[in-house]
Amino acid sequence: MAAAPAAAGSGAGRGRRAAATVAAWGGWGGRPRPGNILLQLRQGQLTGRGLVRAVQFTETFLTERDKQSKWSGIPQLLLKLYATSHLHSDFVECQNILKEISPLLSMEAMAFVTEERKLTQETTYPNTYIFDLFGGVDLLVEILMRPTISIRGQKLKISDEMSKDCLSILYNTCVCTEGVTKRLAEKNDFVIFLFTLMTSKKTFLQTATLIEDILGVKKEMIRLDEVPNLSSLVSNFDQQQLANFCRILAVTISEMDTGNDDKHTLLAKNAQQKKSLSLGPSAAEINQAALLSIPGFVERLCKLATRKVSESTGTASFLQELEEWYTWLDNALVLDALMRVANEESEHNQASIVFPPPGASEENGLPHTSTRTQLPQSMKIMHEIMYKLEVLYVLCVLLMGRQRNQVHRMIAEFKLIPGLNNLFDKLIWRKHSASALVLHGHNQNCDCSPDITLKIQFLRLLQSFSDHHENKYLLLNNQELNELSAISLKANIPEVEAVLNTDRSLVCDGKRGLLTRLLQVMKKEPAESSFRFWQARAVESFLRGTTSYADQMFLLKRGLLEHILYCIVDSECKSRDVLQSYFDLLGELMKFNVDAFKRFNKYINTDAKFQVFLKQINSSLVDSNMLVRCVTLSLDRFENQVDMKVAEVLSECRLLAYISQVPTQMSFLFRLINIIHVQTLTQENVSCLNTSLVILMLARRKERLPLYLRLLQRMEHSKKYPGFLLNNFHNLLRFWQQHYLHKDKDSTCLENSSCISFSYWKETVSILLNPDRQSPSALVSYIEEPYMDIDRDFTEE
């Protein structure tokens, strides 16, 4: 027998079968020949013409060929299924046939996700392929959708049990046979119809898993407002169903990624935004609005996110769900790991949980369980972790959407933050036990581990929650809020208005707030930890916006600056992502703060340490430029203050002395302009352009702008490339005008973070772009005529 096609790959996105594979399948059933049935069926499936279904053959013919080809009787079963599933059928015999087909496919699907499958490069799944090739998938879709057909004004009905069998067979076929999921995704009416099957608890898990797989490969995002009775459907979900439904929502509310790095450039994003303005809200935005219109939706998500393990579903219902996972194969690896943990704990604790074979159950539909023991605690915890992952992701996406302020108000009102604070030690940042759950092929430090993923999702939520929003003070408890007030009072500065306006009934309780807990684990994190990046981003988001001396001092008193410097200098961190997040955080922590610069000088107390620090800064300006900007801004402010404390810092601080030198500033300026171009600008590196502008704006304040431009011209000539830098800068500034003059949020961020009015930003750019070659502050005055190249069209159509 010729080789069957290789396994399609788990989950969504199966699309690799080539014509050679079809030819291999054509060898099934004897010697290859032009009229081979399987080849004709495959061609019919692709073209929609010719042989496409088992019903086009006689049973005698199929039986004879089955003896040679070993099709496991699947074509004959499909022939009977077609005959017993007509509109006037009672579907009893139809369901019996489905139960004959189901084990033939489920055994292959289960094999697909086992450890043994991973040990072989090529694995064959003939049953699911034959089932699809003889029209089984299309027939099951028709059977499932029979309730949408009315006869004499009455809609047809099929049992939940039959729907469940159809869904399981469809999913097993999707798992093992390439292309099936994509074909189902193209049937938009079927995808929308599937949502209606989630009204029944008996079919919920199978339906949800199939929908998730289909949406993962669907080219166009579905619109939730097209789902019949969406509000009623979601409102009737129990908490367990709602948590699982979040897996589907994760696909429907996130903007679709093009998968092309070029599309992440600011040029492309601007073009896409212009296009979107003419098209109206995206499908993801429409879906977010549809969910937020459902009464109590966000409140229920907050309850799920903050639910304690002891409050979660009991043993019996969880074991029922575990049994469902035999067919819910997307989670088979998780189930396998859970069972392994249970077995390990059973050996140590003499606890016994009897997991039945697939399909085995008591009369009440529950698996056999021992009444003597409880479910192992590790399985309860993992059950809750898997739910919270999905819920936190949905909340995070909603926090970043168009209705951000509405979502902020709701999650504050429903006490999400204090609830997460109460779970921090026992669940979110719990210590790993010896038998902590990890998936096959991974370890406890792998980003794919549920424990790790929960922590990262939690940190992303904190980042989104704190970023430029006054609700960030809910991360503190009452005592810590009082500490902020005391810091302002001692410094004789006005108390932050947002602190005064914070509703004390919604803040964290306990001895420590969530921000303080985060700082504690951050300082204990191993050097190689993947969490360092996300932790720094979450803390930095608390400092973003208008600089707050009290906020900075609150963090400085807890040793944050020393921790950051240890990581940058003493541990000599090598990760670019971590370094960038630490430099950004350090910049926000030190900006305009004399005490922070004193602490910096105290820690970096030798030339050797300072040289290591400079080496880290200079190794990648894309990563460190925000720190360079903050130090430059701070230096400018300090130089204009008359204060003994400030004067002392200016005279002693190595970093301020280094940045104050014109050659240093010119070196930074030259490199910042040189490493970016309009076509390669992204949200990540556009900061280099803004940092270069800050240096020139401060030079303009001191009436030194012509000097800096003249020095840039000399540096160009010294590199033997006259005009290349200033032409590039001219183009960058033209883009800057297009980008920022139409984006309110970005311009506000620039103003708040620099304490320079946006009008001064605009004026400086206009002065630099002045076409008058006689102007001493215009870029064109320093580009010699033969090298002029300033009118290049950089827009994307």
TrEMBL record:
<dbReference type="GO" id="GO:0031464">
    <property type="term" value="C:Cul4A-RING E3 ubiquitin ligase complex"/>
</dbReference>
<dbReference type="GO" id="GO:0006511">
    <property type="term" value="P:ubiquitin-dependent protein catabolic process"/>
</dbReference>
<dbReference type="InterPro" id="IPR022162">
    <property type="entry name" value="TRPC4AP"/>
</dbReference>
<feature type="region of interest" description="Disordered">
    <location>
        <begin position="350"/>
        <end position="372"/>
    </location>
</feature>
<dbReference type="GO" id="GO:0019902">
    <property type="term" value="F:phosphatase binding"/>
</dbReference>
<protein>
    <submittedName>
        <fullName>Short transient receptor potential channel 4-associated protein isoform X1</fullName>
    </submittedName>
</protein>
<dbReference type="InterPro" id="IPR016024">
    <property type="entry name" value="ARM-type_fold"/>
</dbReference>
<dbReference type="Pfam" id="PF12463">
    <property type="entry name" value="DUF3689"/>
</dbReference>
<keyword id="KW-0675">Receptor</keyword>
